[in-house]
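Example 3.2
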Amino acid sequence: MLQEQKEILAMNRFDPEQSSALAPDVYRHVARRKASFGASSVLFYAQPIEMVRARGAYMFDAHGRRYLDLYNNVASVGHSHPLVVEAVSRQLDILNTHTRYLNEGIEAYAEELLNTLPEPLSNLIMTCTGSEANDLALRIAQRKTNAKGVIVTRAAYHGNTAAVAEISPAGLRNRLPADHVKVIDAPDSRLAINGDAALHFEQSVSTAIRELNSSGVGFCALIVDSIFSSDGIFSDPAGFLQIAVQKVQQANGLFIADEVQPGFGRTGDAMWGFMRHGVIPDIVTLGKPMGNGFPMGGVVSRPELIQNFCEETGYFNTFAGSPVAAAAGSAVLKVLKEEGLIANADTVGVYLKKGLMTLKQRCPSVGDVRGTGLFIGLDLIDPKNASPDPNFAGRIINALKENGILIGAAGRFGHTLKIRPPLCFSREDADVFLETLDLTLSLHLR
């Protein structure tokens, strides 16, 4: 059966047409929200939740119900982490202003962050969001290459500015990406050539480069989220990006590593997702987990690329790189180091993935289990023909929510459970999730 690609906001989304099924207090709250925000309001779950507080790996609703959060990579070192809260509060009480003044905290943070990246990636431009960072990365790449053509994966999502929306097929509802965008398959082992996912991906990239050059728009960049989260999470085997990146750079294009999802230690084996592939990007973009909830993003690149861009454009961002942002970012780096959260992502991730593989062996509705560290994808399938089953995934997501587990969906068809908890997630938390998922699947099998 042919499956239809799902738009990213359609996954796990509350359907306003079903408002009549809401509890009275929830209905009033949703109606109030809709009156203010209109069609732009996006809520999760068949019965939306009113959240009031959070701590560590848990969130709490207005009725005091506790939820284990396996969805949120914004509060990456843990919800309301006291060290981050204290650092931001203290700096707000002292000074918060733009970056046109010298400030020890800003310079120290930039140096500390850049020390986690390989040479020659030694210049940082601060932004407020990952969308801004990817927009800026495209501008830098287009200036350098004097071309516009971009290669992305089939279900990629890179943000919501006008420019990056065009390179985010997962965010487009009723149209294809723009003509300067070439869409290729993610490095899925099921599409491998003679078992080699890297070769299939490289050949797709090479074909796209030729098509962009022959069309007249020229080849500018390959941009990937280096764990391919929106495509359904593809991280193995380590190193599969190497030959594709070599082809990109040989063709005078730039490789942009979007680290908004896999960055800041989530993969468990390195600070940055691209590192496990043994490549050095031309540009790295940062976002969500950078400030643990404080709005931060960034672009890291070689000095000559930044210089080239600034010769044409006077770039300035009023709120990015403020002393408060630097305080939040520095606190995140400190927590990652002092609490050993990258190592925790590795050890707990291995434990969790092993548990999911065991579950797969006895549950015919579980397909592939993929991922690294604390970012794992679990496919839900129709056991009769192993085809993606997004409707079943939707039921499981809502049932897990009723059982105190928050989780999302990913993949082209929305049938992949996206398992992405805060990095403080423990083995005990993993056991809670595994037991709840096992029970939920057993109760909802067709």
